[in-house]
UniProtKB/TrEMBL annotation:
Gene3D superfamilies tied to this protein: 1.20.120.1630
UniProt-annotated location(s): Membrane
Keywords recorded for this protein, A-Z: Membrane, Transmembrane, Transmembrane helix
Pfam families in the cross-refs: ICMT
Stored PANTHER family: PROTEIN-S ISOPRENYLCYSTEINE O-METHYLTRANSFERASE (PTHR12714), PROTEIN-S-ISOPRENYLCYSTEINE O-METHYLTRANSFERASE (PTHR12714:SF9)
Protein name in UniProt: Isoprenylcysteine carboxylmethyltransferase family protein
Organism field: Cupriavidus laharis
Parts of the chain that traverse the membrane: 7-34, 40-59, 71-90, 102-125, 132-150, 156-182
Topology of the protein relative to the lipid bilayer: Multi-pass membrane protein
């Protein structure tokens, strides 16, 4: 899908601004890039950001929106900013660090894999994917592929990539920050499913009955 210049600018500048947080947390550009795992983290982040530009996702309120769920975005914003800075700072001072370099690379792998899982559903849904809990014009259910097994693959990717990010800095505090993201994420899932149920009725109930929310066989 062809991106708009505005979306490309917003995505890339926002990503670069966010990456300034861990670089500051690690004490500057040279110290941050002194380890190849952190360099890999930046490369993966920029690659995902460039791919996201072509995904077709948006932040439109569409035809119907659950505005009461917008508090979740604020919660993610605060926790995201903390996760951007605190794990890197913890890594630099050696506070509550988990293991060593092996954990860094496990984190990078989880971050990359989770990022791909986060992004693939956006490509599948295209303009139907919004950063808000909303029904878009011409909205239809997707019930095949990833969506034939789990209903929220992008949210699963979000959790995996968030965990990978903090583990790349070996941060025990970062793991706690990731866990704190789960309650607002579950609130968003409940709001989204309620909206889809009201929009698609029996079709969505049947789909819901034969799939898992995020983890097959568990949840």
């Amino acid at each position: 899908m062809r991106p708009t210049p505005g979306m490309a600018f917003f995505t890339l500048t926002g990503t670069l601004a966010y990456l300034a947080l861990p670089i500051l947390g690690w004490g500057g550009i040279a110290p941050f890039f002194a380890h190849p795992a952190r360099t890999a983290l930046i490369i993966v982040t920029m690659a995902l950001a460039v791919a996201a530009i072509f995904s077709g996702g948006n932040i439109s309120s569409g035809e119907r929106e659950d505005r009461g769920n917008r508090w979740v975005l604020a919660a993610f914003g605060v926790l995201g900013l903390l996760a951007g800075y605190v794990p890197a700072w913890n890594d630099r001072i050696g506070f509550w660090a988990i293991d060593g370099d092996t954990m860094r690379w496990i984190g990078v792998a989880l971050y990359a894999g989770g990022g791909v899982l986060r992004l693939v559903p956006v490509f599948i849904l295209g303009r139907r994917f919004s950063g808000l809990v909303a029904i878009q014009p011409g909205h239809t259910l997707v019930t095949t592929g990833l969506y034939g097994v789990i209903r929220h693959p992008s949210y699963l990717g979000f959790v995996v990539s968030s965990l990978g990010w903090v583990l790349a800095f070996r941060s025990g505090v970062g793991v706690i920050l990731t866990l704190l993201m789960i309650p607002p994420l579950l609130a968003r899932i409940r709001a989204e499913e309620a909206l889809l149920r009201s929009q698609f009725g029996a079709e969505y109930e049947a789909y819901r009955a034969r799939t898992w929310k995020m983890v097959p066989g568990f949840y």
